[in-house]
Design brief:
280 residues, alpha/beta, Rossmann fold, seven-stranded parallel sheet, two-stranded parallel ribbon
């Protein structure tokens, strides 16, 4: 897909962060949009911002963890737009806590949104992509934490590793079918969004962070975030045009990816030392 003019893009988690940046970047290229989020006020604000572009925009309040809601939304999007070319499964949440202190309900919560939201979005929209006018592309947002692990991130790690495996398998199947439908897995590094700020934190996370509070830990890690949502959106769009299987966003993501590939065992000790530094 070399151009987005008059294409139709679906974006979950569109009210803020990477989702909002993608919506704006695609609108500038003449792409029609079907946007969802759980934040209605944020969606309304975004509609106002996009009103200057001559495109068709629809919005829906959708909980991506709800299978029926996602499938109903997909049906409504197709009825409204008559075509679907791009699906960005972007909605996601973060969570911190040790394995010991994280409740089963917390693991279920993050998996329902980060993994099942991607699965539902893929399966609900894939049939419509296959009957689209022109090529189709599914873009699933994983994370650099889908490539390497970190203490207190077991829930986030397992959800994003799963998104990676799911998307890579999907891409292989689409390649074998030989149709003009593709899939890309995106691995952002530290992006200047509110996902870390809004992360659910286990009550006893300080047991592992020593003198640092959860808030202090968050501030230290956020100070390392290097990439804006707008830069992330630009990188993703370039990756789609090149039909890349994997898109790494930010210099930190590229360095950590190399570290994990070249020293797959030793990197865990390196990450542990970094975690101790942030806890000091």
């Amino acid at each position: 897909m070399k151009t987005f003019n008059n294409k139709v893009a679906v974006i979950t988690g569109a009210a803020s962060g990477i989702g909002k940046a993608l919506a704006t970047a695609l609108a500038k290229q003449g792409c029609h949009l079907a946007l969802s989020d759980t934040n209605k006020e944020g969606l309304d604000d975004l509609i106002t911002e996009l009103s200057e572009y001559p495109i068709h925009v629809t919005t829906s309040v959708v909980d991506v963890a709800n299978q029926l809601a996602v499938h109903n939304w997909a049906d409504n999007v197709y009825k409204a737009h008559k075509n679907i070319n791009l699906v960005f499964n972007n909605a996601g949440v973060a969570m911190g806590g040790t394995v010991e202190d994280t409740q089963y309900s917390d693991y279920e919560w993050i998996m329902n949104i980060n993994l099942w939201g991607v699965v539902y979005g893929t399966k609900a929209f894939l049939p419509y992509l296959k009957q689209s006018n022109g090529s189709g592309h599914i873009i699933n947002i994983s994370s650099i934490f889908g490539l390497f692990s970190q203490p207190t991130q077991s829930g986030y790690n397992m959800s994003k590793f799963a998104v990676r495996g799911f998307t890579e398998s999907l891409r292989q199947e689409l390649d074998l079918e030989g149709k003009d439908i593709s899939a890309t897995c995106v691995h952002p590094g530290g992006i200047k969004t509110n996902i870390a700020r809004n992360a659910k934190m286990a009550k006893n996370i300080e047991n592992l962070t020593g003198d640092a509070s959860a808030e202090e830990m968050r501030n230290k890690f956020e100070s390392l975030f290097l990439t804006t949502p707008e830069q992330a959106a630009d990188t993703i769009i370039k990756g789609i045009k090149r039909n890349k299987r994997r898109v790494l966003i930010g210099p930190d993501a590229k360095v950590l990816d190399m570290m994990q590939r070249f020293v797959p065992s030793q990197y865990q000790a390196i990450v542990g030392k970094t975690f101790k530094w942030a806890s000091a």
